[in-house]
TrEMBL record, chains A, B:
Keywords: CBS domain, Cell membrane, Magnesium, Membrane, Metal-binding, Transmembrane, Transmembrane helix, Transport. Residues 116-176 form the CBS domain. It is a multi-pass membrane protein. This is Magnesium transporter MgtE. The chain crosses the membrane at residues 259-279, 291-312, 333-354, 360-386, 398-426. It comes from Gangjinia marincola. It is found in: Cell membrane; Membrane. Acts as a magnesium transporter. SUPFAM superfamilies: CBS-domain pair, MgtE membrane domain-like, MgtE N-terminal domain-like. InterPro entries: CBS_dom (IPR000644), CBS_dom_sf (IPR046342), Mg_transptr_MgtE_intracell_dom (IPR006668), MgtE_transporter (IPR006669), SLC41_membr_dom (IPR006667), SLC41_membr_dom_sf (IPR036739).
Length: 427, 427
């Protein structure tokens, strides 16, 4: 993966250049280059490019790219494609390779098992440094950073970083150098993997089955990109687009992922409509109230979203724990109150001149403060509450929040207007 | 940072336990433990805990924690505190330490210079493996993974991972083993650092000044947390909360960061009100239109946000380039159309029975399709457009999008209702 020369392009750079070209040019590049280069470049393509060129790949080219490739990478790429098509293709590969790829494909995309690689170096605790160094030389794989120590039963019992081995004496045994080896289960989620790597400040983490048998390792670059996918996925989940969708996913896939959420949201929207509906008579008398509905709903929605975003991030980065909900709630209540008063003043002034009515200005001001306090509080409490009951805060927070902010916003504004209309001389 | 024993807690775990206790308990723990443990545990505390306990730290304890500490970590922690207070404290430290910490503090928090550490091992290309190994043994720092090769002028010319050195012969010179060393400038942004680490699949990246002099390195765990802060910060920026705010930041800080955005958003909200205002007469005649305003605005807002989230993520993960905007726009247009038709049918049916009017059902259905197509298109084009003119898509996309979706939603719904009211027999 590394170049000996400054002037040579990395496979990643070649891949980026090729992506600018058409499918046919990419295919001929892969067909005419050596097996090693074809493999390295192919696995650097963006997912959507691979989806695009896949139908144009002949069986021969498929064999060239996937035989003796990194089966882990191969599986990651193939998992993005249609499963039945992939299975038809896999039969052209040597049986061992296709079985390995199939094993990976059987893990869920968000688990440690799916992220792991299986090429690693293991040793027993009696092995000497000399012995391990000669194995390292034979393997010649410069990506090996750690030797994992296993017992006779293949159970993981420790680890020795290669840089410890470098400065040890030849006759020392792994047992003397070995450290605790934190590991993750194959079924652990992407999030758990990222947490484990961060907690123990590791470069890579071993993956084990429930009996502690060593299955593979997850490297730091895999963790980095998994962590980026995970966190940025929260953003999409928050709007009901689903973590799995990418910017160049097929439109049909996007519709499948997004439409259910839009339909559920319709229920929310109609609930808000019902609240407005209660005050149909008031609106019929004072039409200008309808004009300011977007202002009230917009500002309480924004206040809630700000509190929600900050709280969800705090939970994702483990800066806050569930037990700290009172502290977060207090902060958001205070922020909602202060911002509410500030926004109420601006809004009140604009509305006073626009509607030429002190009554409506006062009503919108008070309802702004009320609904922004509730929105801030809801933005903090909803995600923490969902986390507490074991739900992903990113998935459903936003829809619950919108329901709360819309209903509170309309109820406080129209309710106050109806109740105070005669007192404040609005009509 | 690592334990020799399985049973001993890591500094991180001790810190997490202590965080449950009060300031006084934390302080006495730090005062009574050894310097090494006090330092290791202190630097594992969450930022807000450090802010809380900082005033209770005596000058003696400050000296204990910060003298001969990792100046890089020290600066990261101190950068979260009030600058003038920190400067008053720094004078109690040995002059070398306080100068080093001050140097770090002078880098912006989002730059490579701020993220780097300065303890690293360098060699000349004539140095032998034997020579380097004895230096490594003397240093005993097991976190050193790479030897950086510099010339007589301190310029970075290559790198040799310690695991290459492990399997080399003692008399080999670094020159024979050395590889290209990708680096970043001290002023490079956090995002550029993450990109460089990902592109070159590195464990750590050297930081250089404009003359290629080696200044320090950034380790993979620093990159991982920087990348997590960066990406999750996008979520907050999108709602105008600012990347710098954390869930337990002070309320006054939160107000300062969020209020300007709320006030700007008020302008947007009043623009939407003006659109509704154009149709005051129509609403006065057909009050039920006001009831369905939240539905139209809500659904086009949601559609836009979904497209926006997917596009911003695609840009952040570098899955799409600016040049691909037509492709993304086409996809979102299609998704908006299909989802629009589906949502229009549901909405139309509900509205037909609710309002008992085929006319209003048809009007809301058509306006739903129109506004959802525009919203999807806007959600894709706005962030890519902002990126193209060199702006951060996360910062202003959302506000522009809301303006577009609110105005289009209200304009299409009320406009169609006004235009078709007699034709469809709405009144």
């Amino acid at each position: 993966m590394l170049n000996k020369e400054f002037s040579v392009k990395t496979p990643k750079e070649i891949a980026t250049d090729l992506e600018e070209l058409g499918t046919q040019e990419i295919i001929s590049y892969l067909e005419t280059s050596t097996k090693t280069i074809a493999q390295q470049v192919f696995f650097e393509f963006s997912p959507h490019v691979i989806v695009d060129i896949f139908p144009a790949i002949t069986d021969d080219l498929f064999k060239k790219i996937f035989t003796k490739s990194d089966t882990h990478k191969a599986a990651r790429v193939l998992s993005r494609l249609d499963r039945s098509r992939v299975e038809k293709r896999l039969v052209v590969l040597p049986r061992v390779t296709s079985r390995e790829i199939n094993d990976f494909l059987s893990y869920n995309e968000n688990t440690a098992g799916f992220l792991m690689e299986t090429n690693l170096l293991t040793g027993f605790k009696e092995d000497t440094v000399d012995n391990i160094l000669s194995q390292l030389r034979k393997l010649g794989d410069r990506r090996i950073l750690t030797v994992y120590v296993i017992d006779d039963d293949d159970k993981l019992i420790g680890r020795v970083p290669v840089n410890y081995i470098a400065i040890a004496t030849p006759e020392q045994q792994l047992e003397e150098l070995m450290y605790q080896a934190p590991s993750v289960q194959a079924m652990a989620t992407r999030e758990e993997v990222v947490n484990a790597i961060q907690t123990h400040a590791l470069l890579q983490i071993p993956v084990v089955d429930i009996h502690s048998h060593l299955l593979g390792i997850i490297r730091n670059d895999t963790v980095l990109s998994a962590s980026r996918e995970e966190l940025s996925g929260d953003l999409q989940t928050l709007f009901g687009a689903g973590k799995e969708e990418h910017a160049l996913s097929k439109a049909s896939f996007a519709v499948k992922k997004r439409l259910p959420w839009l339909q559920i949201n319709l229920v929310t929207a109609f609930l808000a409509s019902m609240v407005v509906g209660f005050f149909e008579d008031t609106i019929a008398k004072i039409t200008i109230l309808a004009i300011f509905l977007p202002v009230v709903a917009g500002q309480s929605g924004n206040t809630g979203s700000q509190a929600l975003a900050v709280t969800i991030r705090g939970l994702a980065l483990k800066e806050i724990r569930i037990g700290q909900w009172v502290r977060v709630a207090k902060k958001e209540l205070l922020v909602g109150l202060v911002n509410g008063i500030a926004v109420a003043i601006t809004t009140g002034i604009v509305v006073f001149f626009w509607a030429n009515s002190l009554g409506i200005a006062v009503v919108i001001g008070i309802s702004m403060i009320l609904s922004m306090v509730i929105a801030g509080l809801a933005g903090a409490v909803i995600p923490i509450g969902l986390k507490a009951i074991g739900q992903d805060p990113a998935t459903s927070s936003s829809i619950i929040l919108t329901t709360v902010t819309d209903i509170c916003g309309f109820l406080s504004f129209l309710g106050l207007a109806a109740a105070l209309s005669s007192a404040l001389g609005i009509v």
